[in-house]
Amino acid sequence: MDDTRATDVAPVADDEPREPLADRVFEVGVAAMECLSIHLGDKLGWYRELAASGPLTPADLAARTRTQERYAREWCEQQAVAGFLVADETGPDRRFRLDDEGVAVFTDAASTDFLAPLARFVTAATVQAPALLDAYRDGGGVSWDQLGDDVRAGQADMNRPWFEQVLPGELAAVPHLHEILSRPGALVADVGCGFGWSTIALARAYPQARFVGVDVDAPSVEAARVNALDAGTVNATFETSWQDAPAGPYDLAFLFECLHDMPHPVDVLTEVRASLADGGRVVVMDEAADDVYTAPGDQVQRALYGYSVLCCLPDSLSHVGSVGTGTVMRRGTLARYARQAGFAVVEDLPIEDFGFWRFTELR
After folding, report:
1. Are residues 71 and 177 in the same domain?
2. Do 215 and 221 form a contact (C-beta atoms < 8 A)?
3. CATH number, domain at 85?
4. Could you please report the per-residue DSSP string of 311-350?
5. For 187-195, what is the mean pLDDT?
6. Is 113 part of any domain?
7. I want to staple 288 with a disulfide (CB 3.0 to 4.6 A). Which of 14, 180, 184, 358 is the partner?
């Protein structure tokens, strides 16, 4: 399958109703401000305190979190107007609370609905607006390290519940992958492991296998080592380069939501393929971009392009010679990279309803 270029545009029905553009842009501006306000509540601990203590007045919330009452009052009122908090009473003693859905979305790190980290991501990209403007004008990029800990932790925290709660069961339902992972002494690589939550989740689910997480971002690898230690995971190790990892051969290698970020994806896939045992497999989990560019797009495709213009493409282009994939890696692009790396077969795996990701097997 060939890569689909932006010039191949799927038609949009002429009679499709469209919201006036001015109204749409106004809504986008309001949403951006609300996103930044979520970041305030997340970083100041206000959501967590409301989840732990129940309804609070702004004065009580400020006192419990050692913040300022006037700001807490404005934020609580704004959050209730936005529909994020519930205002229980009227008057100066009005109390505000999170309902059950709000607890899951804003505070529950184990919930697949946990989205407070998304606001961290957006805010971190906003802080880097001057650097992004320079990159867009002059070339180069904005590296993962420049984007900082809120992007690192934001991505890790959003993916963590999917890896811990959903991933092991989905892989167990694919018989040949379950068989490989269940082999005593099987060696499994997690390339681009980030904070290590995918590695740790699989190591827990398959204690007889050995797992090696690799990521070029040193702070992420350090976080992964701490997370594995805290989890008591003894069959997983983490390295900052493929050269420092065990030589293999590997029975299975995973690349979870990272291939599109890599400046040289074919080189990485080639190295991974060379490390495989006979019959070894590679599984790529990446964003489920549409096969054909369609404009306007649905909310998922809009989100993917949002990630790409603010983070993934600038990070990739911060490296010399980058191919500049971007977040929107279509099936055809992945298939091309896989063929160039020497893989003969590229197939979708029967894993559905896993966020907005797609699982592809290479062999």
Report:
1. no
2. yes
3. 1.10.10.10
4. IIHHHHHTSTT-----S---HHHHHHHHHHTT---EEE-S
5. 97
6. no
7. 358
